[in-house]
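Quick log. Single chain, no ligands specified.
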Amino acid sequence: MFKKPFSFNGRIRRAEYFISFVMFLYFFGMSYLTMALFGFAGVIMLCVGFIPACWFILAQGAKRCHDLGNSGFFQYIPFYRLFLLFADGQKGENEYGLNPKGIQ
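-> predicted structure:
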């Protein structure tokens, strides 16, 4: 799990995407809490962590889209990220790589 988390290549399972999504939400929750408690220092922490956190969730979303056989740009469709949490991936190999479940 979490092989090359910042890479846009490959496929991931629903569980890995769900954990990534929860980590992303937790990061921003803690960032806003830190900002509320520490003021400007919290703003700096939020700004420093924003780009890597967004890169991480976009990369994980693209890999989840690949598991369904779609381009990573599909994640920009409103509410498609919720669909990614529940939809089963394509069986077998597709143009984006091997099935992460190992099922042919």
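The chain has a mean pLDDT of 90.
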